[in-house]
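The instructor's notes for this session suggest beginning with a concrete chain rather than abstract definitions. Hand out the sequence below and ask the class to guess, before any prediction is shown, which regions might be ordered.
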Amino acid sequence: MEQIVFYILASIAVLSACYVVTSQNLVRSVFMFFVTLFAVAGLYIFALADFVALTQIVIYVGGVLVMLLFVFMLSSKRSLQGLDGMTKQRLSENRFPGAVLSLILVSVLGYMIFQIDFNSLSWVQSAIATDNVKLPSDENISNIGINLMTNFLLPFELICILLMMVLIGAAHLARKESNI
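After discussion, reveal the predicted structure:
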C-alpha cells in the first residue's frame, strides 16, 4: 500500500512539474506549482523528513505561492499578455549560453557530490554515533540541525535554490516596465 501511495505522489509531482514548465498560462502554472509542492511534501513525509515537509508547506505554499499570486494579481493585464511574445523571443536568443551555464553548474555539483566523503567528517561521525536513540530531549534543535546537515542536506539545499529562483522570478515579474 505504501508503494502505491508513493508512486501516486511521485507521478503527481512529476506530471504537475512538467505542466508548470510547459504551460503558457502563468496563473495555471502557479496553481500546478502548488500541487507539485504538496506532492513533494508528501514524498518528504514518506522519507521520514517531517520537519522538511512542514517547512516546505509553511514557507513555499504559505509564502512563496501567495507572493506569486499577488504579483500576478497586481500586475497589469497588458504586461502579462505581452509576456508570452517576449518569452519566446528571449528564449531563442539566450538558449545556448543558458544551456552551457546549466551544464557547467551540474558538472561542478556532480563532481563535488562524488568527491566528498561525508562519513569521514568528524561532526558527521559524532552525529551517527548519537543517532541510535532518538528520544525527545532539550537538544531537539541540535538534532534538527545535525539531520539537516547530514541526512537531508541535498533536499535542504535544493529547497534553498528553489526559493532563491522563485524570489528572483517574482521580483522580475513585479517590476514596472516603461512604455517605450
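Then share the key points. Residues 60 and 162 are 9 Å apart (CA to CA). The chain has a mean pLDDT of 75.
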